[in-house]
Amino acid sequence: xxxxxxTRTCGLIGNPVEHTLSPVIHNTLAQRFGHNxxxxxxxxxxxxxxxxxxxxxxxxxxxxxxxxxxKGEVIPCLxxxxxxxxxxxxxxxxxxxxxxxxxxxTDMEGLYRxxxxxxxxxxxxxxxxxxxxxxxxxxxxxxxxxxxxxVYLLNRTVEKAQKVAEEVNRSAKRQVxxxxxxxxxxxxxERKFLAIQGTSVGLAPHVDDVVIDDAKFYERVHTGFDLxxxxxxxxxxxxxxxxxxxxxxxxxxxxYQGIIAYELWNGVKVSGEDADAVYxxxxxxxx
Length: 287
What we know:
Number of helices: 10
Strand content: 15-25%
Radius of gyration: 19 Å
Helix content: 25-40%
Order of helices and strands: EHEHEEHEEHEHEHEEHEHEHH
Structural class: alpha/beta
Number of strands: 12
Strand order of the largest sheet: 2-1-3-5-6-4
């Protein structure tokens, strides 16, 4: 595309941002839609987040994505916050409004769309969620909102899992998240579960790491979804497959969180054909 005086700018703020694949998503979509728009990463130093958001608004940037470590920290910098993002306590997308930005969380809707495209449902499911950090807290909230029957939240520190369960159950107004220690997985009901791996364990370069290294656990998993997408196949995924289950990585979550952000910024609906084309572009970085 030709950059001119009417070119609109979107981007990503975080620290670090050099590894990001988000430009692949947004610049490919801009090309397919014929939008005069470019998307670039902006590294933001510690302590300068408020300056960065104010500067982006002053420069009339159309929108921003937000990545670690600023998804929670950015909230006080915003004019408005969407109800879902407020409940989750994390924002990953900023949309320009008069006087600043409104914050959204497209990560969880992105995860939901990704799961739906693979035929994975949450409603009425009994699930296992590994980890009780920020990502898992958001996933727990998503599961409650989307009608999961029961979610066993397994974490090394059970007190942290209990805190997340209390917060989400209170928000959902029902008992849906049940905290457990990782070491107690043998006390799970005798059945097969949908399991979501919500920790950073197994992220490249530590590709041989896994939260639970016991085949007996994976025998209870009919479908495993790892939020990690690098490496392409995590050890968690391999263990699920070795024990008869289906397994998926987090690349489609990345894809759809970006698509939802693009839709918010541009007031468009991205078709399945366009989503597939962007996904093939993303896969080129792994396969």
